[in-house]
Amino acid sequence: MRILHVSDCYLPRLGGIEVQVADLVRVQREAGHEVEVVTATPGEAAPGVHRIVAGLPFELPVHPRGTSRLLRLMADRAPDVVHVHTGAVSPFAWMGVRAAMLARLPAVVTVHSMWDPVTRGVYRALQAAFGWRRWGLVVTAVSEAAARPIRAVCGPGVPVRVVSNGLDVQAWRPARPAEPTEDEAGRPVHIVAVGRLAPRKQPMRLLKLLESARGKVPPEIAMRATIVGDGPARGRMERYLRSGRLDWISLPGRFDRERIKELLASADVFVAPAPRESFGLAALEARAAGVPVVARAQSGVADFVRPGKEGLLGRTFDELASAIALLVRDANLRRSIAEHNREVEPVACSWPAVLEGFDRCYELARR
User: Fold this and answer.
1) Which residues touch 334 (CB under 8 Å, ≥6 apart)?
2) pLDDT tens-digit readout, 130-158
3) What is the pTM of this model?
4) Nearest alpha-carbon partner for 69 in 50, 82, 41, 87
5) Maximum CA pair distance of the chain?
6) What Å distances lie between residue 357 and 17, 140, 151, 160, 348, CA to CA?
7) CA distance 206 to 227
8) How does residue 55 score in pLDDT terms, banded at 50, 70 and 90?
9) Residue-level pLDDT at 182
10) What's domain 169-345's architecture?
């Protein structure tokens, strides 16, 4: 099958959508599909990557004549299906949807974000202006939590399917650890979080959450926390740590995948507290690596973390702090969840399952 992916952002930018789309392209090519990408992100030439770049300030990933440029590209490449990737509001990606409709090509739209009330209002306004519900789209969301607000806007006439983000599960599975020595048994309980340090992810709330959890743990139980990532909130977080003398929490910056794997090998608990997390790829990586996960019950992480099985879920700040504290205090509970996570794969998030899910959506769009 000839597949054309359309995404505002793509490599060399590094972010959740960019990395996930690049991995999907690679895996689909390995499965024998003819796959190309069109993006508004500038960068070096790469095989099968078409860059429609306007040279706007701050390298904004949009093009004022994007629809016409995309139409010409679609006519030239003649894909069997156009697969569009959007965040909350992605102008270039929706130009791709419009171009596919004008070219009478089947289109699948994957929404990688959680639609908040403002976003839902925007898409209702766009429906009133353009009638996009009649364009014959098939929509996918990355989790049930992300799908619910999309279905509320799309209505019964637009199919909305859930297709998980993909992960090479085997690559993240650890070797079974040896029984802990006496020295290892007395080490601090290690809590890990990974993500962009941006206000949307509420990183300051994460620090206060860890601080609250520490207060629920007996002082004789040692704790340490590592928050991996970078972003505009990092300076404020560092000042907060210094002012509160929270020297047991470290901010080492951004890690690549290999360093994250090494970090997870020493982790006892992984925390993903953002309430509007549409999926939570870093949490899935931790779960695949055998680490118990603490996350919001209303986030996309709940698709692959069940309370008491793969980790613990909470709906409020206090419930999350209590869940972290419980795992820190209860070594047997940590051990049982870790053993389950090592032995039971998250099959729905494996690439074979993701490819099968998208293949069904492509066929539905073509019909």
Assistant:
1) 189, 268, 269, 292, 327
2) 899 999 999 999 999 999 999 999 999 99
3) 0.90
4) 50
5) 68
6) 18, 10, 18, 12, 9
7) 9
8) confident
9) 40
10) 3-Layer(aba) Sandwich (3.40)
